[in-house]
Each structure stands twice: as C-alpha cells, then as structure tokens.
Amino acid sequence: MSEFLDLLETVKAEDVSIERMFNAREDGRGVRSMRRDDPRYVRSFSEAAKLVAAVVEGRTPMYRLQEAMSTSDFPLLFGDIIDRSMLGKYREWPTIWAQLARRGTVRDFRKKRMFTMDGAEGVLSPVGPGAEYPEAALTEGKYDYAVSKFGRRVPFLWEVFVNDDLDALRETPSRLAKAARMSEERFATELYVDSTGPDAAFYTGSRRITTGGVGLDVGKLSTALSALWAQTDTDGNPIFTGQVRLVVPPALAVAAQNIMNATEIRVATGGGGTAAADQITARNWIGGQVAEVVVNPWLPIIDVSANKNTTWYLFADPGVGRPAMEVGFLAGHEAPELFLKTPNAVRVGGGTVGAEEGSFETDGIDYKVRHVFGGALLEPKAALAYIGA
C-alpha cells in the first residue's frame, strides 16, 4: 500500500511539474513572449529537454510527452529542442566545400557584387635621379552572386504520438542537419562541375588538362601541380597557391591516398636515356605540397560523362590570395533554421485542441526548415582540372 501511495505522489508531482514548466504564466507571461536568453525561458527549455531525453531513452513513459504536448508552451519548447539539436548535428557534419572555397556573408537577397583590382604588383622599376616614377595600370574585375532559400516541411503526425513512435523524435534533427549539409555540398560542387565534367568556362587553357591516361598517378599529379604553379597574374608575377587540395571522386580515393602516404616515389630524372632506364628513388615530396585529399562523392553524381570516375581537381588554399570560389550565407541566418506552424483547429462547441492533435487539415504538427545560401566561382587561376581518358 505504501508503495502505491508513493507512486501516486510521484505522478501528482509530475503533473504539477508539467503544468508549472510548460503552461504556467509567471508575471502573466508564457515562453511564447520570452526571449531565448531570458533566464525563465532557459529554465523551461532545460526542463523540456530533460523530459524529451527521458522519454526517448525510455526512462519516462510516452504519455508524459503526450501530456506535455497538450499544454500551450511545450510545443514551442519542443520545436526549439529539435532546432538546437539540428544545429548541433549540422556543425558536427563534415564539410567538403569549406576546404576549397571562401566562406562569405551577404546582407540581403539582392545580387552581391564583389570588385577586384589587378595590377601594380609587378617588380618595381628603377628610377633615376630626377626621373618621373612610372605609372602602373590597374584592371578592375567583378563577380556577382545572390543567395537563395532552400528548405522543406517536416510533419509530426498525431499517429506518431498515439503509436509511441520515438524514431521520428530521435532521428529528425540528424536528418535535417544532413539535408542542410548535403544541399550545400551539391550546390558548391555544381559551381565547378556540370553534367559534362569540369565547367568549360572556368577551366580553360592550361588549367584544363585532357591529355594522359586513365586515373591518377605520380606523373599526372606532378604535371598538374607544375601547370597550377606556372600561373601568373596580370603583372607576370607567380601566383602563390599555398598547400593545394586534391579533389577526387570515390573511384580515385585509394590511388590518391596511396600517393600521399607513400614514403618513397620513383620518378624520371628528365635527362639521358629512356624514362624506364633513367629513374631515381626520391622521398615523397608530394605530401608537403598537397595539404589533403578531398574525396567528393558528388562528383560522379553531377558529372555523368564517360570520364566521371577518372577526372580530378586541384584547388589552391582558399586562405591564400584570391580563392577559386566563394559560398555565402545571409547575415544572421548562416545556419539552417527550424519553424513551427501553429495548429489551426478548434473543437465543435468551442475550445482549441491540444498541439499534439495537429492541424485541421492533416492532424499534423508541421516544422519547416529553412537554409539560405549562394555562391560563385571567383579566380580560375586558383584551380585546375585533369580529365582522365
């Protein structure tokens, strides 16, 4: 009997707690009117997060979450929990484009125009006594891009809570975070790759190598590095690339890693006899020039040409000089955001339904994820494409 009374008191305490945490009005205010940095909101959010975690982990029965969802404030806190979980997963998800492009910020949705100046960087000319200093010519360039909205709606149906289906609660933040990262990665890859291979307008001249055999080896990589390092600016100065990034499709990942991790390489000295007879064994110097191998799984998905698995790319360090491309985000909205649609149903005879009952049309609680970004190619001389036969 005493155990039953203890359980009853526990349930009563939980009832009071849920009402206090998620539907109480301190100073006549609910969480709906509080700032996210308000200590009272932080306290309510913390309690809501503990409840959700306990239900997901099986330490608290599902009906406690269903009961909390019937209050006026908990659905907002629950949405904030998913939002912050999604943001955490988004930041943990590995990125590819950030190793190749500069990250930018724009103020609005209008086209962002970036101006560049070239010239006046050549070696200074000698000036004799009383002579006029020579004038240098400056060349102006510009790049344009605008950010766009990307997103989707995610419904939590009434049946989810009736059926105690916790998978949706557990997996949704990760799914939304992955969707945001995948959207960025595909967009960034499509800046320099299309269905026919490397972007023809960006990779021109010596920055587009089409000779050579299939795949990737030390000789081809040496040729490509030499071509990239041979680029000069408008004054004829060499362009410093820093440690370059080698970008490969999954089919070339093993070959690229083998080259990078080799302790020694055999190369032709370049003089006397045939290449087969005129070789030396050298310490692997490539690892000191290539910062890392970037395996981009989007390459053979976007590039559907016959060479999709044998084409690879070099990118200069985006932090040195002018980067090959930029990916920009809307100021104040640099990460994906989650929004909750307020239920719009009422009961016959009056009275609003609980939030867990969902909308009038679908019995669903709709969450919307929004991500705003854009980008553009910038400096062709900071990148090179090698198209395997």
UniProtKB/TrEMBL annotation:
It comes from the Bacteria. This is Bacteriophage Mu GpT domain-containing protein. It comes from Nocardioides agri.
